[in-house]
């Protein structure tokens, strides 16, 4: 762990065919106000001119090229070359704000048990113009969530996407290597509470670019196939988390974790997929309505409102129930946005 706010911080930038954006990402990492930053850029076998553009920043940034490994493999390759006790993974289409490293590294200097610090992300368009949206809507309170993970499995807590987080080296060393399936965000946010404290910084730290190819942008499309794929993904994420918990010698009730899922929205997605396919309701009415109320951090008035809404959806005839369910899943800007 770093002991002062001036300790070395590694920024690992992962790139695949983002030649139009990678230079902005590298420059933003080099322009940090924090006094000790190393920048490592990993090109994941791009077929565009990314590699040529990246190398114009040498030797200020260390550039590495690897055979196609996906985001996770590229990130792990960069981590192996890094030396900081705090590590940021920056997607090549995003841009760090100038004080990002300083703000995200400070919690690690102040507390030895911090494994993750996260801040807000401001959306920008393809050309870098601010779109006026902050992600997520509200970060959870700083604290230790290990016991909550052991009780509930996947937690319905909002978190920053990849570029909005900083991680302790000790935590990353404990959980790497990860499977190359999926993205860093499929693993690190759910594993981090098992190892220490999560700190939420109440400031924007990164500009998150929306350009039509982002995984997040595409995930907002509400279709049967996308919802079915989402549920399958949540199941394998539960299995991965449960395997990891058991490897630590801790209890993991994977059957209950899968039954209650990450949140009541996931249970509603399961309901929609079943009913749209002509199958019976997958949950009893009482369990369906209980989903929003069971989380220990749920705020009572909105949880009661959600419970009553689920009850209405369950009781309505199939077509009307599906219409209300689709409205509910879209109401907060996208079914995959669980903030």
Summarize the structure.
The chain has 339 residues and is α/β, with parallel strands linked by helices.
What does this structure look like?
This protein is of the alpha/beta class and 339 residues long. The protein folds into two domains: 209 residues, Spore Coat Polysaccharide Biosynthesis Protein SpsA, Chain A; 110 residues, no CATH class. Helices cover 41% and strands 18% of the residues. It is built from 14 helices and nine strands. Strands 1, 2, 3, 4, 5, 6, 7, 8 and 9 form a nine-stranded mixed beta sheet that branches. Helix 2 links the parallel strand 2 and strand 3. It is globular and about 65 Å long.
Question: What are the key terms here?
Answer:
Glycosyltransf_2, single chain, transferase, Glyco_trans_2-like, Spore Coat Polysaccharide Biosynthesis Protein SpsA, Chain A, globular, transferase activity, 2 domains, 9-stranded mixed sheet, alpha/beta, 339 residues, 9 strands, Nucleotide-diphossugar_trans
How does the major sheet shape up?
A: 9 strands, mixed
State the domain count.
Answer: 2
State the CATH architecture of the largest domain: Alpha-Beta Complex
Broad CATH class of the largest domain: Alpha Beta
Name given to the CATH homologous superfamily of the largest domain: Spore Coat Polysaccharide Biosynthesis Protein SpsA, Chain A
From the N-terminal CA to the C-terminal CA, the straight-line distance is 30 Å
How do the SSEs run, as a string of H and E?
EHEHEHEEHEEHEHHEHHHHHHH
Oligomeric state of shown chains: single chain
- Total helical segments: 14
pLDDT averaged over residues: 92
Query: Which outline best applies?
Result: globular
CATH topology assignment of the largest domain = Spore Coat Polysaccharide Biosynthesis Protein SpsA, Chain A
Number of strands: 9
Helix content: 40-55%
Strand content: 15-25%
Pfam family, one: Glycos_transf_2
Domain Glycosyltransferase 2-like: 10-135
Protein name: Glycosyltransferase
Keywords: Transferase
């Amino acid at each position: 762990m770093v002991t002062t706010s001036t300790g070395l911080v590694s920024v690992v930038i992962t790139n695949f065919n983002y030649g139009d954006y990678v230079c902005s990402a590298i420059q933003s990492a080099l322009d940090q106000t924090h006094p000790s930053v190393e920048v490592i850029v990993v090109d994941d076998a791009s077929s565009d001119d990314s590699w040529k553009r990246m190398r114009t920043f040498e030797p200020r940034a260390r550039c590495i090229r690897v055979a196609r490994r996906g985001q996770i493999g590229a990130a792990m390759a960069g981590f192996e070359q890094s030396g900081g006790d705090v590590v940021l993974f920056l997607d090549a289409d995003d841009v760090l704000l100038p004080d990002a490293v300083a703000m995200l590294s400070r919690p690690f200097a102040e507390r030895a048990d911090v494994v993750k610090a996260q801040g807000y992300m401001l959306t920008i368009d393809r050309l870098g113009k601010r779109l006026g949206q902050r992600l997520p809507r509200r970060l959870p309170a700083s604290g230790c969530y290990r016991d909550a993970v052991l009780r509930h499995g996947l937690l319905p807590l909002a978190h920053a996407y990849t570029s909005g987080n900083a991680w302790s080296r000790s935590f990353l060393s404990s959980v790497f290597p990860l499977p190359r399936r999926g993205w860093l965000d499929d693993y690190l946010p759910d594993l981090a509470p098992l190892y220490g404290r999560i700190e939420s910084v109440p400031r924007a730290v990164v500009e998150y670019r929306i350009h039509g190819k982002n995984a997040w942008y595409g995930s907002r499309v509400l279709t049967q196939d996308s919802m079915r794929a989402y549920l399958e993904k949540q199941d394998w994420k539960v299995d991965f988390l449960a395997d990891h918990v058991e490897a630590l010698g801790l209890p993991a009730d994977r059957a209950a974790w899968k039954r209650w899922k990450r949140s009541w929205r996931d249970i509603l997605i399961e309901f929609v997929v079943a009913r749209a396919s002509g199958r019976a309701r997958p949950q009893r009415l009482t369990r369906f309505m209980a989903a929003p109320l069971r989380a220990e951090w749920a705020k009572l008035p909105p949880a009661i409102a959600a419970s009553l809404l689920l009850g209405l959806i369950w009781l309505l005839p199939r077509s009307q129930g599906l219409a209300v369910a689709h409205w509910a899943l879209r109401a907060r800007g996208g079914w995959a946005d669980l903030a």
